[in-house]
Write a structure and sequence with these properties.
148 residues, alpha+beta, CBS-domain, three-stranded antiparallel sheet, globular
Length: 148
C-alpha cells in the first residue's frame, strides 16, 4: 500500500503576505483569491498564518480601522507546518488533535502549500466515492474557493 503524502493533496499557496500588511489588505487578498487562510512570511520565512476567523475575531474585540491594524496582530505565530513528504494520516491526526484548520507545507522555510479541513473533506469524499469529484474541483454549489 502506498502512503499518501501531504504534498500529493495540498494546494499551492497562491500568495503570502507580510506581518506588516493591514487587515484590510489581508481581506482583499482572501477575497480576490477566494481563500480563507494566508501564510505570513517575513524575509522569505514562514512566521505565521492568518485566517478569516482570526480577522473576524480581532475585529470584533474593539472598534478598529482595518486599514491601520497589521496582520501580525491577528495572525497565529509559529503555525503547524510540515514538509511535503509528511504522511497525510499524520497531518490529519495532528490537525484533529490540535483542533486547527490548516497545515502549512514548507520547504526551505517558505510556505509552498496549504492543507485545510475543507481539503481533508475533499480527500475523504474521493476515497468514499472515487468516481465523483476530483480533488481540484469545487463542490457543487460552492461559492467560496476550495479552502476552509
Amino acid at each position: 500500500m502506498t502512503i499518501m503524502t501531504i504534498g500529493q493533496v495540498m494546494h499551492p499557496c497562491p500568495v503570502a503576505l507580510g506581518p506588516h500588511h493591514t487587515l484590510a489588505e489581508a481581506h482583499g487578498i482572501m477575497r480576490s483569491h477566494r481563500i480563507r487562510h494566508l501564510p505570513v512570511e517575513e524575509a522569505g520565512r514562514l512566521v505565521g498564518v492568518v485566517s478569516q476567523g482570526d480577522l473576524r475575531l480581532i475585529e470584533s474585540l474593539e472598534q478598529l480601522d482595518t486599514r491601520q491594524v497589521e496582520v501580525e496582530d491577528a495572525m497565529t505565530p509559529d503555525p503547524y507546518q510540515v514538509g511535503p513528504e509528511a504522511p497525510l494520516a499524520d497531518v490529519v491526526q495532528e490537525m484533529w488533535a490540535r483542533r486547527i484548520g490548516s497545515a502549512l507545507v514548507v520547504e526551505n522555510g517558505a510556505a509552498v502549500g496549504i492543507f485545510t479541513c475543507v481539503d481533508a473533506l475533499a480527500v475523504l469524499h474521493r476515497l468514499l466515492d472515487p468516481g465523483e469529484v476530483p480533488l481540484t474541483s469545487s463542490p457543487p454549489g460552492a461559492t467560496e474557493g476550495h479552502r476552509g
